[in-house]
Amino acid sequence: MPAIELDEHTHGKVVFAARVMGCTPSEVVRRLVELWSTTEEADSESDAVRVYAVYRSERVEGLFDPATRTLTVTDGPGAGQVFPSPSAAAMAVIQTINPDRSTPNANGWSFWRLTRSGEELKSLRRQTRTM
User: Fold this and answer.
1) Could you tell me if 131 and 68 are in contact, meaning their C-beta atoms sit under 8 angstroms apart?
2) Cβ contacts of residue 97 below 8 Å, gap of 6+?
3) What is the pLDDT of residues 18-49, one digit of tens each?
4) Is the domain 46-131 a CATH 3.10.390 member?
5) Domain ranges of the chain
6) pTM of whole model > 0.70?
């Protein structure tokens, strides 16, 4: 398997990111490369915004469409499903990962984060209100 060299500081950050994301350091690098190599292509086709959530150490990725306010889960539990709102998507993810939770109520605007910045999805609502 090919290897890459990282300085100690960068290696520490990759290891920390892996811990937070609940995956391996190589998975962190793979996701970053994948994100940056496909972002331009995805952004040019639509106005969808890449989002993610981490629930019980499991990362789920999706695309949020600001025009319709729908959220499509693209990777993780529920991949391929389109939900009518960020909250509906969040509740479905929670129910799938933790089926013992009786009422998986969730605020999707706080549950999902923007992939590019890590901000909560609700930051987009504030931006569109001020425009």
Assistant:
1) no
2) 55, 56, 58, 77
3) 887 777 888 878 777 765 554 444 444 568 99
4) yes
5) 1-45, 46-131
6) no
